[in-house]
Amino acid sequence: MTYSVLMSVYKNDDPDFLKIALESIYDYQTRKPDEVVVVWDGPLKETLYNVLIAFQKGREDVIKYYPQEVNRGLGEALRIGSELCTGDYILRMDSDDISDSKRFEKQITFVEAHPEIDAVGADIAEFDSDPTKEKMRTRVCPAKHEEIMKMCKRRNPMNHVTVCIKKASLLKAGGYQTLLLLEDYLLWINMIVAECKLANINESLVYVRVGNGFDGKRGSKERIVGWSKLQDIMLKYGMINHFDAMMNKFYIRAFVNTPTNIKRRLYQIILRK
Question: Could you report the per-residue pLDDT of 34-76, keeping only the tens digit for each?
Fold first, then answer.
């Protein structure tokens, strides 16, 4: 089996964070991927170009770039990139996070031991600026498919940046679709409906940067629109009932309108370990 890494880069990404992210998925991995696919989501700043070109130099057969003329958004960029990946499995990565050096080794060992699993994620450890100097907070996801299905009715059951997914299963479920800030959640729903099997490794395999506008993404007004659409989709598929949909919409509205400092505290106390 072969393995591709999929990443999207956007003009507002930080070049220093991008360099660290790229190094973490290739230079420092104990099991290197067979391919790294990076979609340039529209024109980039020169500083980002410089990082990308330097990283690719001498390994153009493995590190592959696909520039887009205009910004298409994350969902469309990932759809394009996933179709271009040649690996049997696709490992997701974001442009400002850090993969643990044994991430790919552990996930590849898992999927090879459990061929019935269509996508496996992992826990994440969140940090503000330096993961080596901070006490990180952990977002733990349920390990087994049945638990993932149950959590999916209320919250996102997988950490998108950690997933290793069968390309064939991804396409079977309809691939990546655009739903602002919630493309991953929609994908898990579609995979469950397509009778794909999901799992999580209860170990932090990606270190996620939360001091980079992350709280704003969690609490944006756009999330209300996307969340409402998700409820309607789950209702249509019979995953939840009308009362569940109504309550989920109420909770997200209340959360989005909560002041940022209180929101962050809630994450630290209730939703993280």
Answer: 999 999 999 999 999 999 999 999 999 999 999 999 999 999 9
Provide the 10 A C-beta neighbour count for residue 179.
Answer: 21
Q: Are residues 52 and 156 in the same domain?
A: yes
| Kind and range of the H or E run holding 218 | helix 214-218
User: pTM of this prediction?
Assistant: 0.92
Return the bridge partners of 250, or none: none
**154 and 237, same structural domain?**
no
Q: Say which DSSP state 267 is in.
A: I
**Enclosing H/E stretch for 242:** helix 242-256
For residue 213, what pLDDT is reported? 52
Helix H or strand E encompassing 240: none
Q: Choose one of 196, 212, 228: the last residue of a domain.
A: 212
**Torsion, Cα of 230, 232, 235, 241 (10° steps):** 100
